[in-house]
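Private note to self, pasted from the team thread so I don't lose it. Backbone tokens:
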């Protein structure tokens, strides 16, 4: 009887020991690693061509050049990855323009924004031209949007010749994160704008060739170059038709080449997943 009882107690103890060491089954632990277009992280996309990156993860520092921006009435809030730059009606960030950005010949700029309907032309990023009315590279929310549609425009200065895009109407972009990318290829003289990883429009400027920015020592996030105090350009000051970004800006990247559509699509998807 004692022997039988011993075996029963031993079996019970063994069962308890095994169950205590066995982890609860987690199906996600068996899922394959995330892989989008051959990339598992946004850091891997065209990494050799990345010349500036502002993650705004609690800092105003470009992680590539180590140049730091200066805030006027901005803060940080939840972003697509970590934190994002939170703007205000009087807010913006001014930075020295990294040397490699000043020397761009071809480029891709990518960013995320989250905004309500803008009430004035609202700069997202502006590489200033201190002697001209418009900056060297300007991406902004143009006037003319409505509750259902936003209007996006870009302007690029090439050695004093200004390229102005048409107004791109984009539906359903308010109050949520939107990924925007603009590329330029000096060989084809073609600009391409992308929304959420998909191509929106291409613009070819015959014989535009390699870019030459002028007086590009400063840049601003969250407004246009002439809306800062003091103005970043001697050619103008604050305008009643312009405004500051009251929403959020995140993950601003600048590359020294025109990324492919696949690279931009992968970057958008990876960042949207916090990778």
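Design output:
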């Amino acid at each position: 009887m004692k022997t039988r009882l011993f075996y029963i107690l031993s079996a019970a103890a063994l069962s308890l020991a095994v169950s205590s060491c066995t982890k609860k089954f987690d199906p996600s632990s068996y899922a394959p690693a995330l892989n989008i277009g051959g990339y598992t992280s946004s850091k891997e996309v065209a990494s050799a061509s990345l010349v500036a990156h502002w993650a705004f993860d609690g800092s105003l520092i470009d992680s590539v050049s180590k140049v730091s921006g200066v805030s006027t009435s901005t803060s940080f809030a939840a972003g697509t990855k970590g934190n994002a730059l939170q703007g205000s009606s009087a807010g913006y960030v001014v930075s020295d323009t990294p040397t490699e950005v000043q020397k761009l010949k071809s480029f891709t700029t990518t960013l995320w924004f989250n905004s309500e309907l803008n009430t004035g032309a609202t700069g997202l990023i502006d590489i200033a031209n201190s002697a001209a009315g418009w900056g060297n590279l300007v991406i902004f929310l143009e006037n003319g949007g409505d509750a259902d549609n936003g209007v996006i425009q870009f302007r690029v200065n090439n050695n004093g010749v200004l390229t102005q895009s048409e107004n791109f109407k984009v539906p359903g972009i308010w109050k949520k994160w939107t990924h925007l990318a603009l590329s330029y290829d000096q060989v084809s003289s073609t600009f391409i704008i992308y929304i959420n990883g998909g191509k929106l429009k291409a613009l070819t400027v015959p014989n535009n060739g390699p870019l030459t920015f002028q007086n590009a020592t400063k840049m601003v996030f969250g407004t246009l170059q002439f809306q800062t105090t003091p103005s970043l350009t001697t050619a103008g000051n604050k305008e009643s038709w312009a405004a500051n970004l009251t929403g959020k800006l995140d993950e601003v990247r600048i590359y020294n080449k025109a990324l492919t559509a696949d690279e931009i699509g992968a970057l958008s998807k990876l960042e949207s997943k916090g990778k």
